[in-house]
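Quick illustration, no need to memorize.
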Amino acid sequence: MGRRPARCYRYCKNKPYPKSRYNRGVPDPKIRIFDLGRKKANVDDFPFCCHLVSNEYEQLSSEALEAARICANKYVVKTSGKDSFHLRVRVHPHHTIRAHKTLSCAGADRLSSGMRGAWGSAIGKVARVNIGQVILSIRCKDSNKAVVMEAFRRAQYKFPGRQKIIVSKKWGFTDLTREEYTSQRDAGLMMQDGCYVQFLTPHGPLEDNLRALARVAAA
């Protein structure tokens, strides 16, 4: 028996059913990589950020997420290079979907029990997404804006329902707008921390603040 079509599991009908000690024997999700590209790029390197946002309350299969990830990654790598971006998959498949496996061969009516004990066995995992929830995010240089938006347009075809491509007003993956980021960076009120920033405040233990200022000065 093959996999059922994803249209059978598109809508969020039941309660979340994650893998647990009560729900065993769940196959691993197809998607295993959630960050790709130049993950260790500095905050200053990639100021532009774009999101693929769900416009429906639905379930996205791990197979669809993997297909969209591969599609977007392949286009950006081919067009602008493998070190020109950082892509992040923002949803994780935790919800288990089930199928009641029945026989459909000749003489199956004497072997199967019909709808008796119809609680199905686990066949895969899906991510439950809400309206306005971010599915994929990419940060890159401003010059690659058109490439990233085209990559998301292609990745949309891997998902059911409707999605929107939204250009963020924030600086990269941070919570700061471009104006706030440049002003606070120039004023020395924050230090870089991977994809994000840490704010330097005069509050708290004096030793910790001095160590933080020393790190900023060294950088």
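The chain has a mean pLDDT of 91.
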